[in-house]
Design brief:
7 helices, 156 residues, elongated, 60S ribosomal protein L5, 3-stranded antiparallel β-sheet, alpha+beta, ribosomal protein, 5S rRNA binding, structural constituent of ribosome
Length: 156
C-alpha cells in the first residue's frame, strides 16, 4: 500500500507511473509509419478523389531512384492496395532510340530548342571533323559506334 502525501509530509513529489490500463490501451503506429517510409497525411491528400467523381480512380506518377536505375510508375489507389498500371525503367530507353547520354544531368525545360536537340554538340562535332579528326574520333566514339551524326540528332 502506498502512503499518501498527507501521511508522509516530507515526500513532496510522486513520480507518475504508467498503469496497466495504459499499456492495455496502447496502440502502435502503422508499420510503414514506424519505419519512417510513409507519411499517411500526405498520402491521403494524394489519393483522395473528389466526391463528384465517385468510383473513378485517381492516378499518380511515381518516380523511384535506385543505385543503378530509375523506375517510373503510374499508380492508382484501391482498398485492396495500390495498383500499378504501368512502369518503365531507364535501362529500357535504348530500345526506343535513346542510346547515348543516359548518364547526363537533367534537362531544364526552359532551354532553347537548339540546345535541347543538341545543336551546340553538332556544331562542335563539325568543327572537330574539319580541324582535328583524331580528337573527334576519341570524343564521340559512342556516337560513331551507334551511327549517330550530330546534325541528325533531332530524329532521336
Amino acid at each position: 500500500r502506498r502512503k499518501s502525501i498527507s501521511e508522509n509530509p516530507t515526500m513532496v513529489f510522486i513520480k507518475p507511473t504508467k498503469s496497466r490500463a495504459y499499456f492495455k490501451r496502447y496502440q502502435v503506429n502503422f508499420r510503414r509509419r514506424r519505419a519512417g517510409k510513409t507519411d499517411y497525411r500526405a498520402r491521403i491528400r494524394l489519393i483522395n478523389q473528389d466526391k463528384n467523381k465517385y468510383g473513378t480512380p485517381k492516378y499518380r506518377f511515381v518516380v523511384q531512384f535506385t543505385n543503378k536505375d530509375i523506375i517510373t510508375q503510374i499508380v492508382s489507389a484501391s482498398i485492396a492496395g495500390d495498383m500499378i498500371l504501368t512502369l518503365a525503367y531507364a535501362h529500357e530507353l535504348p530500345r526506343y532510340g535513346l542510346d547515348v547520354g543516359l548518364t547526363n544531368y537533367s534537362l531544364d525545360a526552359g532551354v532553347h530548342r537548339k540546345y535541347v536537340y543538341g545543336g551546340h554538340v553538332a556544331a562542335y562535332m563539325r568543327k572537330l571533323i574539319e580541324d582535328e579528326l583524331e580528337k573527334y574520333h576519341t570524343h564521340f566514339s559512342e556516337y560513331i559506334k551507334k551511327g549517330i551524326e550530330g546534325w541528325h540528332r533531332r530524329t532521336v
